[in-house]
Amino acid sequence: MLRITKILLVLSVAAWGLLGAVGNLAAWKGTTGAVGAVTSMATFAGGATQWQATTNPAVILAGAVFIVLFKLSSAGLCFAGTWRMWVERRAAPPAFNQAKQLALAGCAVAVFGLFAGWTVIGETWFEMWRAAALLPAADGAFRYGGFIALIALLVGSRED
Fold it and tell me: Nearest CA to 107 among 82, 83, 84, 138?
């Protein structure tokens, strides 16, 4: 039963990545608008005049593409990992532990994308923490990253 639970947890991360990427692509103007709001730093007093603030379309496009690519990469790795884990669900512990590698890589890509994108770039570089209007998005990214990291820890636990 524990192995099935691990498989379902990884499948949920894959679904998060796929649904998130599809949502970002379907609402592309919203995606680029959100990235533009962060990079322009115009959502808090004095932000738009700071040296790191930018409305450069290439920077905004790169940020939006990064978001979609990391979600799709995470989803692909987690879907592949889910399949490998499913195939090895009745195997000896070493084989099942080995089957988890793609799933764990997918979780790592998701956590990296959320941390690097929101915390390092958004909150640290573009000082998003100063914009009350953007804090719910940062809270969501932290919540997703925390859950996915917890899932990776649970899935990564070895079976002897």
Answer: 82
